[in-house]
């Protein structure tokens, strides 16, 4: 009996989405009255792993084989399934890598998958987990009917609460052989060193209202000041004003930040589908009838070229006075 | 080159989402269904581009009842060579993946390309499940794909950038934006789609999960309008009231 959290690091720091998986696993373990254990593969910082104790993890099982540093969904799946073979529940963040791993682990362990959990499980009349469906327009309450369960956790679902504690680290071998690794990395392109869009807590996004790519300076400035990621609407990425990987919406990325600031975006339903999981939405638009205001928490009717510089100024003032 | 593209039918984005039978069933009345955009625009079109260049065939596969055939014919009109319909409603992601695997396992496909997710249940799960059932590599969220000499070179989004990876074929790829551009079927395509082969195969029933009940998210509170001259107030509200900065 135990609940497993799968942990990933980036540059020796545990990913925020993995911290969320660890916290979710320990809260689930409390509900199930069992223990929460983390599984880490490849290179990790030992003190980072030990600090998972602050999130309720008692033990970290670590296979330090450096081959795992190359992401290979098949090999990682085999390793997780082997290490977690005596566990009841495996929690994996549904980040970019998790979307490749969790469905595979589900099949390998014959364990039902919740592909994007939005809340902790409930044990009332079965093992139940809710998930947003129809692009956030409804919630489905799933029941998992297999003995083992895989929960793929939507990033930014839970607020982390840290306590005291240190996890013990145990070296394990996951029994994966070199032949299990079939992926070769040919190159990595880092995007302009800024905040990763799908993990960002704050997002500043802009659309056609900005009139041209040369006007994005103020958006980038606001984002930089706030420590936010930049995003854009489909219309803007389609005409190559901004790169595809900034496109948020139904056919682009789905984001769930704490704050989404939309500048000059009318709020087509396909765009809303990608952002309606945001906790708070600010809309800045010249058109007071823009549909986005219906989905917003705070609205500003005004010219972006006037409002955004004022907002940058106001934010700088707030920042200067906040400490 | 033999490529298989699983396709799904989904409610159009503008559809009103409602439920019946004590909120246990999706209400399909007055709902317009479409082919799932990432399946049609990215997976299917890239598959067609690959066989147009190197030769081969593209088969589309769909799980659903007979009323799904208009959507399968649309995929044939876009350019797929033949089609398979698994004759049962889908019960969960594993059920669909298992049925596709049961059909595909001995057909010698070099490549299976799925859309990254369906826009109804947003699961992102079928591709990975098929890959594990077939015990082949899987690359997800791919925005580019080249096939040559038994290898797939794939551009894949990672947090903060893009990774170019190489995996041997056969493999499964899930496609997203950047992979290809939508194709509108022309009259010749629509005419020829009527006579392209469409086989119907039986389904297995095994599944792992079920939806007990649906509900709606809490309604949004009204938008608070801020004077464009007073951005200090907005910043203050975001800090004090919304607590997001």
Description:
The complex is a heterodimer of chains A (323) and B (245). In chain A, helix 3 (73-83) crosses helix 4 and helix 5 packs parallel to helix 9 (304-321). Chain A has helices at 16-32, 46-50, 73-83, 98-108, 217-226, 234-238, 269-275, 292-295, 304-321, and strands spanning 3-7, 9-10, 13-14, 36-41, 59-63, 89-93, 112-117, 127-133, 138-144, 149-153, 168-171, 184-190, 202-206, 229-232, 259-263, 280-285, 298-301. Chain A starts with a strand and ends with a helix. The mean pLDDT of chain A is 95. Chain A is 27% helix and 26% strand. Chain A folds into two domains: 3-180, Rossmann fold, CATH 3.40.50.620; 197-321, Rossmann fold (3-Layer(aba) Sandwich), CATH 3.40.50. Chain A is built from nine helices and 17 strands. Chain A has 323 residues and is α/β, with parallel strands linked by helices. In chain A, a hairpin with a 4-residue loop joins strand 8 (127-133) and strand 9 (138-144). In chain A, the strands form four sheets. Chain A has a seven-stranded parallel β-sheet with strand order 7-10-6-1-4-5-11, sandwiched between helices. In chain A, strands 14-13-15-16-17 form a five-stranded parallel β-sheet. In chain A, strands 2-3 form a two-stranded antiparallel ribbon. Chain B is of the alpha/beta class. Chain B has a single domain (2-212), classed as HUPs (Rossmann fold, 3-Layer(aba) Sandwich). Chain B is built from six helices and 15 strands. Chain B has helices at 37-54, 69-78, 93-104, 126-134, 187-193, 231-240; strands at 2-6, 9-11, 19-20, 25-26, 33-35, 57-63, 82-86, 111-115, 138-148, 151-158, 161-168, 171-175, 198-201, 209-215, 224-225. In chain B, the strands form three sheets. Chain B has a nine-stranded mixed β-sheet, sandwiched between helices. In chain B, strands 2-5 form a two-stranded antiparallel ribbon. In chain B, a hairpin with a 2-residue loop joins strand 10 and strand 11 (161-168). The longest helix of chain B is centred in the first third of the chain and has 18 residues, at 37-54. Chain B is globular, with a radius of gyration of 21 Å. The N and C termini of chain B lie far apart (53 Å). The model of chain B has no long low-confidence stretch (mean pLDDT 95). The chains are: A alpha/beta (323), B alpha/beta (245). Strand 9 of chain A pairs antiparallel with strand 14 of chain B, so a sheet runs across the interface.
